[in-house]
Specification:
This protein is of the alpha/beta class and 321 residues long. The chain has twelve helices and 15 strands. The protein has a five-stranded mixed sheet with strand order 3-2-1-4-8, with helices on both faces. It has a five-stranded mixed sheet with strand order 11-10-9-14-15, with helices on both faces.
């Protein structure tokens, strides 16, 4: 019987799939990134996942019999027990059993979780050496997602929906609300929301990003970072307001849950960590009950895109005991 020394983790996105082969020493042996197209439906996504796995095996010469699990990070709600993707809008998938489809190609356990949960597991393993108590991981990017850990264990909720922080109703200041003026958190403070605000305000105000906006280029986190370095007043103002919303809501959540650790990641934060984190912390300190919040430090993550890849190890440790 082959010794199962490897885990393959697949971070599934709407436009690309990033896969990695990780060995028993928790080292990434090889990565493969391939384009995909969510508009072609779940069948095509599965084909792309299979292709990425085969490329990893071919590049490394590793036999699939040496792989103990395929761990998938999905941008949406999933059922880790059944293997069903309940709803993944960015993948154009609803109620699809990806586990069943992949096991037609590989006789290996298929595990899956929300992509931010996977990132949280990666952070738990590699940045906290599995010594996590009560932690919230928040990723700010196209949307906003969260992962919760209580007493060192992932909390997924009664129906696996826990952590959907981006859909919490807040007002423009970041306070919990449920009136006609309230919006989903990610509709106010995600990178997408902040960029949309910058584009709208650029019609009346000068900004370094005007040249990209006029060309119709997609404004990414790296563009925001350049604008901040250029001391762009509009960009800094909009992102600062986003940070206030993020910090305020995190303060309210900490008052409720008595967290001890908050990690804020995602492309927007990773590219602008020095600018954003102090502002998030300041708003957090104002919003949280002082006694609860005084021991909480909001930090970033150095793992970047590798966080969900490493999280595949955590998923295998949890479900293959």
């Amino acid at each position: 019987m082959a010794v199962k020394n490897y885990v393959i983790t697949i971070d599934v996105g709407g436009t690309k799939i990033l896969s990695a082969l990780i060995d028993k020493n928790k080292q990434i042996v090889e990565r493969v990134k391939i384009p995909t197209d969510a508009s072609k439906g779940p069948g095509f996504i599965v084909e792309c996942i299979v292709d990425s796995i085969n490329q990893l095996l071919q590049k490394t010469g590793v036999n699939i019999k040496s792989v103990k699990a395929l761990s998938l990070g999905i941008p949406g709600t999933v059922n880790p027990e059944s293997g069903i993707i309940t709803d993944a809008p960015n993948l154009n998938i609803k109620n699809f059993n990806v586990k069943k489809e992949l096991q037609k190609n590989f006789d290996v356990p298929v595990l899956l979780d929300n992509d931010v949960n996977m990132a949280g597991l990666g952070i738990k393993i590699f940045e906290y050496n599995n010594k996590v108590n009560n932690m919230l991981v928040v990723f700010v990017g196209t949307g906003i997602g969260g992962a919760l850990f209580f007493n060192g264990k992932m909390y997924r909720g009664s129906t696996f929906f826990a952590g959907e922080i981006g859909h919490m109703k807040v007002n423009a200041k970041g306070y919990l609300a449920n009136d006609d003026d309230s919006l989903g958190f990610e509709n106010i403070a995600s990178r997408t929301a902040m960029v949309n605000t910058i584009i709208e305000k650029s019609k009346k105000h000068k900004t370094y990003l005007t040249k990209y906006i006029k060309k119709g280029e997609k404004i990414k986190s790296k563009h925001l970072a350049k604008a901040i370095k250029k001391d762009d007043k509009l960009v800094k103002e909009v992102i600062s307001e986003g940070c206030k919303v993020i910090g305020t809501l995190l303060g309210s959540i900490t008052t409720l849950l008595n967290l001890d650790t908050i990690v804020v990641g995602g492309g927007a934060v990773e590219a602008n960590e020095e600018f954003m984190l102090p502002k998030i912390q300041k708003a957090f300190d104002k919003a949280v009950i002082k006694e609860i919040g005084k021991s909480v430090k909001i930090t970033g993550t150095k793992l970047g895109d590798d966080a969900p890849l490493y999280g595949g190890l955590g998923l295998a440790e949890e479900f293959l005991k």
